[in-house]
């Protein structure tokens, strides 16, 4: 089962990369947080490719591509939030130069969740589920 999930994630990424070479994809920086010691940045990105969209957290010193990704959720186009809600879906906060906290709604489909990248430990917290309409599940 573990290998099947890894294969599905790999196929999804290859598909997004293939589509991005067609020019129909975009990446938007939603938020950026610098580590307390100033050596790393964590960015929340919205990547869209046709009807596929994902929210990504990437960690690195300056450049952010798929090799820097530590967290990813995929959203079908029918579940895209209104523009002003993209930024609030996934949040990042440094609590130490080597500890990053990522919070995200529990109803998002997580396709990548890394707990350590280099010297940075990543802790995750699920927040209440949020439907596309903005209403919270009971």
Can you offer a commentary on this structure?
Helix content is 17%, strand content 46%. It has one domain. Strand 1 and strand 2 form a beta hairpin. The chain has helices at 2-20, 86-89; strands at residues 25-34, 41-49, 52-60, 69-76, 91-96, 99-105, 109-113, 116-117, 120-127. The strands form two sheets. It has a five-stranded antiparallel beta sheet with strand order 1-2-3-4-7. A four-stranded mixed beta sheet has the order 5-6-9-8. It is globular. It is α+β, with helices and mostly antiparallel strands and 138 residues long. The protein contains two helices and nine strands.
Strand order of the largest sheet: 1-2-3-4-7
Radius of gyration: 15 Å
Between the first and last Cα atoms, what is the distance in angstroms? 31 Å
Number of beta strands: 9
Biggest sheet features: 5 strands, antiparallel
Question: What's the short version?
Answer:
With 138 residues, this protein is α+β, with helices and mostly antiparallel strands. The protein has 2 helices and 9 strands.
Give the topology, please.
Layout: H1 2-20, E1 25-34, E2 41-49, E3 52-60, E4 69-76, H2 86-89, E5 91-96, E6 99-105, E7 109-113, E8 116-117, E9 120-127
Parallel strand pairs: 6-9
Antiparallel strand pairs: 1-2, 2-3, 3-4, 4-7, 5-6, 8-9
